[in-house]
Amino acid sequence: MISNRYDFVMLYDVENGNPNGDPDAGNTPRIDAETGYGYVTDVCIKRKIRNYVEIVKGGEAGFNILIKADKALNTKFKATYDKLGYPEIKDTKKKTPKEVENEKLARQFMMKNYYDVRVFGAVMSTGKTPCGIVRGPVQINFSRSLSPINIQDVTITRQGRTKEDDMAGNTTEIGKKSIIPYALYRAEGYVSAALANKTTDLTEDDLDLLWTAIINMFEEDHSAARGKMCMRKLIVFKHENVLGNSPSHILFDKIKIQENTPVPRKYSDYTVTIDYSMPEGVEIIEKL
Question: Considering the entire predicted model, what is its pTM?
Answer without folding.
Answer: 0.92
